[in-house]
# Entry
Amino acid sequence: MTSVPTAVHDEQHIAARTQPPVTMSGPDFPFPYDDFLAHPAGIGAVPPTEHGTEVAVVGGGLSGIVAAYELLAMGLRPVVYEADRIGGRLRTVGFDGCDPGLTAEMGAMRFPPSSTAFWHYADLAGLSSSPFPNPLAPVTPSTVVDLKGETHYATSPADLPEVYHQVMHAWNACLEEGADFSAMQRALRERDVAEIRRIWSALVERLDNQTFYGFLCDSPAFRSFRHREIFGQVGFGTGGWDTDFPNSILEILRVVYTGADDDHRSIDGGSRQLPLRLWEKAPDKAVHWPRGTSLASLHDGGNPRPAVTGLHRTAGNRITVTDATGDIRSYKAVVFTAQSWMLLSKIACDDALFPIDHWTAMERTHYMASSKLFVPVDRPFWRDKDPRTGRDVMSMTLTDRMTRGTYLLEQGPDRPAAICLSYTWSDDSLKWLPLSAHERMEVMLGSLAEIYPGVDIRKHVIGNPVTVSWENEPYFMGAFKANLPGHYRYQRRLFTHFVQDALPADRRGLFLAGDDISWTAGWAEGAVQTALNAVWGVMHHLGGGTDLLNPGPGDRYDELAPVLLPED
Ligand SMILES: Cc1cc2nc3c(=O)[nH]c(=O)nc-3n(C[C@H](O)[C@H](O)[C@H](O)COP(=O)(O)OP(=O)(O)OC[C@H]3O[C@@H](n4cnc5c(N)ncnc54)[C@H](O)[C@@H]3O)c2cc1C
# Structure
């Protein structure tokens, strides 16, 4: 997901940070997933008669693995299907022939402290983390902003020219005037549900038809085209903004309100370890299963089942799953976590799986494209000093050239390191699509040579580049969802589908989860939150429930349900 200007803050935003932490619970469904997970009463139970019941989980990404882990802990028997590899968009890869500890994050690579449900599982899995070197972050030695051929070197925001500060002030003013920013952040920090709902209901009604760019244009603070252009091209946080300009402004507001783009940390050793460790880990307090039972131990050969190729409803309110080996099994409950477009193309489905309005919502789903390319290098040579200027010879780089964002990732002074030469979204990503990894690298090195004419990056490269374009990955077809204007109602249908009591009995039992279903697509937190909703849905469907002291997302649904906009 793209950035917000977090590197530079107005005083009011600094003041807001001294208060209780903001989390990614809300504003659409302000359920405290972190408190729910931490509660000693646990997250619910199914009747003993259901112990051992098989529940299919389609997709072994974070959402599927979290759902399966919790279903296992409840005494159910998750059957996980995975078409590609465990981890999904938490895809950490190595470089052929290089130090195995040197890795590249092809999908998610930085996680905000506000993604508290995500960190619950990262802690459970015993993972450690480190600050991520975003532009102008305290851990980043230096940042270069290169725009229209003009290059600015900065070790702190104060080093940037005045126009960048004007842009930052314009953005903060625009958020304040157009979206009640401080009041919403205060309400989120204080978990003041009534206030969150009061502010958000009005905004959803007013802004569902508005693009991000339209929102900027409507703001007196962003009257200047030049300011909008600078903001779009380099932003002030983790990268440029303009590839998000056509998206719904509601998507952007969710990110800024909830601190999703603030104070990022990376997972040491790579984010894919999280689903892999949960796959191997026996839940401490699992019911029914012998001690030591894990997802891996419940699956033949310790591997998930292969891709699902068919899903249909069969008599007795069952859902029947066919996989790539031709194996057919029928379940009382299925959790589906892959991207929704899979249901439109790669999986044979019958219409009865979902109400028609839900199919419409899935068909209208809009994904951002995204490409990345990493190269391994011999050492963090960028910290060498230019004898003439005394500056780092190369820096984290934001530019309007093809590369857009270049990140420098080190493991220690004399150890091999990696450069993410380019991280792009949407149209900028499509520009790379037809190029091979080596062709991409050549263009990227060419762009960077314009910015750093005296630096021979190539002489430090010690292995082949690794690259991805998520829109070209058969089991993904896009990087992450980003709603367009007018999509609020679609998102609401998908997100709320886990509460099924109002559906006819023959339309229940299939639960959607994952990035597409979440209100904060592009952030792993949403994959976790929607997994927990689906777990609640399965538990409820099988006649179980939560402890009265720790009500779950479905128990509090009427109180917290997302704003309902009229359909007529
Ligand atoms: C480029 C990029 C950058 C990102 N950056 C960040 C970031 O910095 N921070 C952050 O928090 N989040 C980030 N995200 C988002 C984060 O990666 C996702 O929210 C999260 O990983 C989604 O998990 P999921 O389980 O919902 O989906 P997925 O990880 O996509 O899992 C779904 C799984 O379903 C499988 N599947 C597909 N079809 C089938 C089938 N027919 N049968 C069986 N299995 C199937 C897929 O192979 C996949 O493994 C990023 C994502 C991308 C792509």
